[in-house]
């Protein structure tokens, strides 16, 4: 469900600058693969998957929803370290 003042268009406008496209540089219709990252953000293996799909003639798109919200891998690393410290202190 969208937030009351949110729209699909607004969400796409926010995400679009953070989508990497892979695949043949033509206008032909092709099957596509959309790759989303996990909790740790975009990791190197996602790029490998996108390149493999492109090599087989697919279009592949990597969506970085963290970057679109102002989160970077560096910030995620800090948050993960803080969570690990907190978890350890609870044991």
Low-confidence segments, given as residue ranges, are none
- Total strands: the figure is 3
- From the spread of the alpha carbons, the general shape counts as elongated
- Number of helical stretches of at least 4 residues: 4
Order of helices and strands: HEEHEHH
Taken together, the total number of domains comes to 1
| Strand arrangement, major sheet | 1-3-2
Mind describing the biggest β-sheet?
Answer: 3 strands, mixed
Strand content: 15-25%
The residue fraction in helices comes out at 40-55%
Radius of gyration (CA) equals: 17 Å
Secondary structural class: alpha+beta
The mean pLDDT is 84
Q: What does this protein look like?
A:
The chain has one domain (17-90). It is elongated, with a radius of gyration of 17 Å. The longest helix has 18 residues, at 73-90. With 91 residues, the chain is of the alpha+beta class. It has helices spanning 8-15, 44-55, 65-68, 73-90, and strands at 19-22, 32-36, 59-63.
Write the layout of secondary structure elements.
Blueprint: H1 8-15, E1 19-22, E2 32-36, H2 44-55, E3 59-63, H3 65-68, H4 73-90
Parallel strand pairs: 2-3
Antiparallel strand pairs: 1-3
List the main descriptive attributes of the protein structure presented here.
91 residues; alpha+beta; three-stranded mixed beta sheet; 4 helices; elongated
Task: Give a brief rundown of this model.
This protein is of the alpha+beta class.
